């Protein structure tokens, strides 16, 4: 005998405005697996592809993380520039080559629909450097000892 789990239950709104009993979950295992595959393919394309865009000709770009939407149709790729921290200057060029990269990815991914790529600068390394600089200040180092 199967029973509908939502029948007879009343959804109530909790203190944070969320439905009680429905916890927000992280990405699914499939999102993580496909995201890592997209990251690997994108990183390979950046390493091997000759771009015609003058801003990207000598740019060494690394893809640090890719997050996928639940339907796997949109991918947010976090990128950093090797050797320099001015990735913001390359964002318009990355948006311009996004359709080209998507078409090149189609041959390397076994997906029905290749996700649309949205680029975001990865600021995690910059943030880590700031925290490290703060921890190395004499006043803070004295407090930590």
UniProtKB/TrEMBL annotation:
InterPro entries xref list: KH_dom-like_a/b, RbfA, RbfA_dom_sf, Ribosome-bd_factorA_CS
Any one annotated GO CC term: cytosol
PROSITE patterns, alphabetized: RBFA
GO biological process, alphabetically ordered: maturation of SSU-rRNA
Subcellular location: Cytoplasm
Quaternary data: Monomer. Binds 30S ribosomal subunits, but not 50S ribosomal subunits or 70S ribosomes.
Family: Belongs to the RbfA family.
Protein name: Ribosome-binding factor A
Taxonomic source organism: Gluconacetobacter takamatsuzukensis
Gene coding for it: rbfA
